[in-house]
Amino acid sequence: MKKTPFGLGAITTFSAALLLASAAQAAPSKNVSGEVLVPLNYIIGLKEDGSSDQAVTEACEKKYEVGMGKEIFVEYQISPTQNRAVALVEDTEVRLTPLGIPETYSFTSDKMPDVLKQKGFLRVIFTMEDDFDDEVVHIIAAGDQPTDKCFLSTEAFKLRQ
Length: 161
Prior knowledge:
Elements: H1 8-26, E1 32-39, E2 42-46, H2 54-64, E3 71-78, E4 83-89, E5 92-98, E6 104-108, H3 114-117, E7 121-129, E8 136-142, E9 149-153
Antiparallel strand pairs: 1-3, 2-9, 3-4, 4-5, 5-6, 6-7, 7-8, 8-9
């Protein structure tokens, strides 16, 4: 009986096949673009450890109340080779970078425009399912204290168990 080594070549071929299968699932076969309006309906104040805090929430509601109920405009372009998105926050364009999270199209801001930083906005996150549904926007903003954060979102904040 001749032994055939199960070596690096077989593993490389198998890895390449898995990579191609996952990449094909992650991106549509053609270009898809769209625009969505996503409302900000919820706000919660978070302490440095990520726990919610009623006093911080009240301070966040007061600080960012003007943003509640407003819609964030997001334009996205999804293709087999590149995904891009841009959000419009308080009439200011924020470029978003893909996060590479499986089974979703998720984007985040790497850099906030100065005009939004001055208002306390730290990060914008946009996500939607891979069927282009269930759009969600999260905005992380500064609280009154350096360790406090305000979490503005389309959906209610849930602590992980």
